[in-house]
Amino acid sequence: MSMNMNMKFEPKIMAFVCQWCTYTGADLAGTSRMQYSPYVKIIKLPCTGRIDVQFIVKAFEEGADGVIVSGCHPGDCHYTSGNYYARRRFEMFHELMSFVGVDMRRIQFAWVSAAEGRKWAELVNEVSKRVEELGPFNVFHALREQANELNP
Amino acid sequence: MARIGVFICWCGENISRTVDVVKVAEAMAGVPGVVTSVEYKYMCSDPGQKIMKESIKNDALDGVVVALCSPLMHEKTFRTAAEEAGLNPFLLEVANIREHCSWVHENKEEATKKAIAITRSTVERVRYNLQLKNITVPITARAMVVGGGIAGIQAALDIANGGHEVVLVERTPSIGGHMAGLSETFPTLDCSQCILTPRMVEVARHPKIKLYSYAEVESVSGFVGNFEVKIRKKARSVDTSSCTGCGICQEKCPQKNIASEFEEGLGKRKAIYVPFPQAVPNKPVIDRKHCLYFTKGKCKICEKVCGPKAIRYEQEDEIVEERIGAIVLATGYETLPATFFPEYGGGRYPDVITGLQFERLASASGPTSGELKRPSDGRRPETVVFLSCAGSRDLAKGISYCSKICCMYVAKHAMLYQHKVHGGKAYVFYMDVRASGKNYDEFVRRAIEQDKAIYVRGRVARVYEKEIEGVKKLVVKGADTLLGEQVEIVADMVVLASAVKPSVGAAALAQKVGTPYDQHHFYSEAHPKLRPVESNTAGIFLAGAAQAPKDIPESVADASAAASKVQILFSRKEMERDPYVSMVNSDRCFGCFSCEAVCPYRAISRKEIKNRSGEVLKVVAEVNAGLCQGCGGCIAICRAKACDLAGYTDQQIFSAIRGFNTTSTYEEEVVKK
Ligand SMILES: Cc1cc2nc3c(=O)[nH]c(=O)nc-3n(C[C@H](O)[C@H](O)[C@H](O)COP(=O)(O)OP(=O)(O)OC[C@H]3O[C@@H](n4cnc5c(N)ncnc54)[C@H](O)[C@@H]3O)c2cc1C
Question: What are the distances in angstroms from CA B417 to CA B214, B282, B376, B377, B433?
């Protein structure tokens, strides 16, 4: 989270994407010059199957207000089954996070293929808008400060 | 302390129009560990690359971030340049500030902030980049082709003619596959054996092809370029090196009423037999299930009559090992048996036959020497009903797909029938006629217009037997959906265009080889459009009807394509691969092998850790870098955090995440000023 001079909330959103589908889809949005919200920043991974749920927790810990995880459509995984394992893992994670009280609207799972530049732009806009409305993820950030105080 | 250099590109106006590159450079200059941060109009130009190369040398850099276009564009360019300047290329990372930033944002302040954040995160990541080396794997330039139908034959010949050794493994006693049993082939009606036999002989004679007939793949281990294959040579009970193929054993064998597989059960064979006269190899095999000596312990006539003394009752299966660099799977298809269709009387009435059986009846070398006769009583059938889509596109039969070849062979059958039984009536029940190959629709039209085949659109509900004037006839009841009426045809013979399925054991073979297959057990291609003859497993290629129903021209085209893929692989002595592979820390691994279960490449094996006296202390996971494709699935599943992915380590990613946040101070300070 960061506030500028007029205290307008500019959400920080981190996107974990696979290099084969979504990263390339985001490239396509670029080459097609689609304009979209600037709050989402990408971390490239070989496959969504590589994404450890700790990455998501870490992102929030480091100040993110929202997270996107996006990879290949079911059946399109470059590595055959990575996105499928990822999906199963995130379902469990989802339940755990809801239980802990995290507003799951801050985490968006999606499928964006290399051909879906438009879908990427729309996804970014949609998530940015939603997280802007939800406001800064102060609850989690406060937790982190507490933790820092406890274990300096 | 790290010594990182940051090089930011204007990309002419492409980046600089919306990103204040000077501010990005200033922001990065203030980051701990960054020793140089410069921008330049075109970093990818020669002078641009030179700036980076000189800085690598002069500033003794141990990490580089280039902030410019997508890594898909220029990562390779800059890594090569870095390597030329003496830096390990994997210590360089690209920050994508064009496709992901300058091109998609209009507000300069926002775009500049985002570019700073992206570049900063990349700087944080690069701190933890490791020096990596591309993986090189040697390639054994020897191929194995599994399945000796037309697809396997073509693939083997192409690879061998390209100068590489081929091991061809065929499960039955002879190569040839289904094509050897076809009568004449659409769309030209040339005799199948006439065009196939020369190729079979070429295989037998080819100095670069080693043929294992009556053999099966026992196991496959290893990886692309380096497979180790075990092949089971089933006991033939005949020493093929001394056998001359004279045929006297077969002639004298007293066991003569065994249904011949080659004749689709319509002809008989002996217990020692060559499946068909043109078989390759032309050497007999003893069918131990039916041989009197093997079942009753006496006879041995074949041994007595064999001049060269080639009979070996005591022969056992033999396992041979071969080192192989690439594998072509060409195991073909089979069709649903008539017994699968009780509603059509399949299995109950001998004159309800399958398309493959019709091929044998129409074949000059078949059990009736090409005369069309009813299997039940040898009469000439005056009326024949052909049922297309028997099982195909029929979810009730579990088959959703179109078998693709039937429309064409049904038209062919109707034509052949007409040529053999003048004045006979051929009815074809069909759902749609799909004849979309070159000269295919013309072929079907010929069947209808010249050869007067009567096409009835609709499905047949039932076939039953009825005796008319002392002759058993088949009553075919169905609907003509175009006329909207029920039809009833009294026929002498019913031919089922029964659905095409992968050959028995296709899935088991795919599992041995480690390559995926679909719900019907057809082998899966790596990409349905762009990689149709490659499997998803490196070094495994697909050809012919084992991948999907296919006719001969398609199977041959596939086979040549697969052969050319094999030759591309064999054109080098070794292969280079990205070093992004999984690594296991054996101290942390406690051997749960969750990684083994999720690995789609079977790249995880088990390694025993022993103490000095040789006792096994524990068993841990080990990654075969040749097989690992670097998806990272094992890492995310590892509870002990013992796995990590070179190039995408946890540390690199955590640091990159932190990098996005750390930017706040810099971005705010710099952008405001
Ligand atoms: C009734 C009918 C009529 C047809 N008429 C025509 C026609 O006129 N024109 C045309 O173009 N096409 C025709 N076809 C299609 C044609 O038969 C196929 O296109 C062709 O045979 C496919 O060749 P293949 O090599 O892929 O498979 P196959 O011919 O099935 O050969 C596969 C081979 O692999 C072997 N094998 C299987 N499993 C294993 C294993 N695990 N290990 C080792 N070996 C194994 C088999 O024994 C066989 O020898 C017809 C098909 C049918 C059913």
Answer: 35, 32, 18, 18, 19
